[in-house]
Amino acid sequence: MFNKVLIANRGAIAARVLRALRQMKIASVVVYSEADRDLPYVAQADEAICICEAAPAASYLNVDAIAAAIRESRADAVHPGYGFLSENPEFAEAVCALGATFIGPDARWLRAMGHKTQARELMARHGMPLNPSSGVLTGDADAQLDAVRRVGFPVLVKPAAGGGGIGMLPARNDAEARDALERARSMAQRSFGNADIYVERLIERPRHVEFQLLADRHGNVRHLYERDCSVQRRHQKVIEESPAPHLPRALIDETGTHIARILAELGYDVIGTAEMLVAPDGSFSFLEMNTRLQVEHAVTEAITGVDLVQAQIRLAAGERLDAVLPAQIATSGHAIEVRVYAEDPRRFFPSPGPLTVFRPPVAKGVRVETGYAEGNRVTPFYDPMLAKVIVHAPTRDAAITQMADALEAFDVEGVKTNIPFALAVLRSDAFQTGDVHTQLGAELAAQTSARPVAESAA
Asked: Reduced to 3 states, what is the DSSP secondary structure of residue 290?
C-alpha cells in the first residue's frame, strides 16, 4: 500500500479523497492555488503545497508545478480526482516517470477512451451497441455535410476530445448543420486544444444512464450497478440517482455484465464509468467511457456500501478485485444526489462571491461533500460547484422528500445558488413519477425562469 498520496485537485473531491486517506492511515498531500489557500481541507492535510496563482492553467492544469510538488513531498502516488488532469494521459505518464503511481487507469486507457470516436469504435468492435454516428469529420464543408446526412437528421454535433457538454450542438437540417459544425469545431479547439468533431443521431428525450465499473490489474472487472443522470442543464448533470426508475433490473444486470465482460477482454484497469443513452424504446447505446472517479460516485456508495475512493486506491496499488469487493454486492434503498452550484438559478451563470453564510444540512441519511466553509470566497476561476448533497432512504419517494427537506435547510448567503431549480425538479410531477429524460431540466428551467427567484440561496 502507498505511504503518501498527493491529491492533484481541489474543492469537494480533494476533501473527499483526503477523508479516505485518513481512514486508510495514508499520509496526505494537497496542492492548492493562491485562491484556495483558505479552504478548510488545506489545513487538514498532512502537507500542503502552494503550486501557483489562481488561473487553472497555472495551477491545477500545470503539470510541471504538480510534478514539482510530487518531488518535494516525495509522494509515492497521486490521486487526480475528477476534472482538471484526471483523464490526461501525459500527466499520468509524468507521474509514473517520477516513480509514483497514478491512481487511475493506465495511461493507454486514458488515451484510448479520451477520444470519443476512437472509444466508440473500440467498444463497437467488442459488441457494444452504438447509436448511428460518423467518424471524425474531415474534408471541406460540403463533404462534412454529406457525412451528417448519411447519419440522418436530427443529429448532435460533438467534440471528439471533449467533455462536460461543451460544444454539443443539435442540428435538424442542412442550414443548422453548417452553423453547428463551424461553431462546434471552434469551441472544441478553444476548450480542448483539439478541433476534431463528429455527429451522432439525436435521440429525442432519451435517458442518460451510466454504469460504475471497478477493475484490478489481473484481468477482473465488475460493475456496481447504474446511476440515472438524466436531469441536466446545458448537458451538465445536476441530479443523479440509483436505482434508475422504471428500468427492468434484468436489463440493468445484463447490460452491466456485458460492459464488464468487454472491459475485461480489453484489459481495462482500476476504475471507470460507461455512459449510455437509453432510447424511449428502452434500448441502450454507448456514449463514452469516463476513465476516472465520477462526481456522482457517492450515489453508488450509498446503495452498495462500497467506498469507491478507497477501492480505487487499493486497486491502483495492485490489490485483486476479490480482495477489495465482497463476493456479492446487494443494493439497498434509493439514493439521490444534487449538485449545488453558486450560480444564477434562472440563467445558470456562475455567481462568485463570499460565503457570508454557509450552513449545509445535517440530518440522518443526508451526506454533504464540500470543499468550502463559511467565510470562504467562491472565485470565478473554477467550476462553481459548492457542494454535493446525497440522501439515502428506503424508497425513492422517501429519498425525494428527504432531499427536498435537506435543500430547504441548506442556508447559503453571499452568492446565488441553483437550489430553487433543484427543488422545482424534485417537486415536478415528471420527476416524482420517474418520467425523467435529458430535456427535463431544460423544460423545468424555462418554467423556473418565469417565476421570481430569491437573491440568496435557500
From this structure: strand
